[in-house]
Amino acid sequence: MTGFKLALSTAIALATMSSLSKPAAAAIEYPWCVQYGGGHQGGGRNCGFVSYDQCMMTARGAGGMCMQNLFYPGTAEQPQRMRRRHSSN
Questions:
Q1: pLDDT along the chain (89 residues), means of 10
Q2: What is the rounded distance in angstroms from the CA atom of residue 73 to the CA atom of residue 51?
Q3: Beta partners for 46?
Q4: DSSP state, residue 86
Q5: CB of 34 within 8 A of CB of 45?
Q6: Alpha-helix residue ranges (DSSP H) falling in the chain
Q7: Which of 12, 23, 54, 64 supports an S-S bond with 59, CB 3.0-4.6 Å?
Q8: What does pTM read for this prediction?
C-alpha cells in the first residue's frame, strides 16, 4: 500500500507543478546595444536600450560602446505607399 501512496502523491505533485508553470516569454529586442570590451575573452553585450542616448549613458559608465542591434525587428507596421493618381485629361 505504501508504493501506491507514493505513486499517487508523485502524480498529484507532477500535475500541480505542470499546471502552475508558465510558458517562457519571448525575449524583447531593442534597437541599441552596448558592447563591453573583454579583450581575448569576448566581453558582453546588452541590447536593452530604446535610444542611442540611453545606450551611451550606460556605455560611458561601464566602459563600452554603442551599436545598432542587427537583430531588432523594427516596428510591426509597414509605412504606407503613396498611390499614384491618374489624371483624366
A1: 71 63 65 83 86 93 90 66 62
A2: 15
A3: 34
A4: P
A5: yes
A6: 2-20, 52-62
A7: 64
A8: 0.50
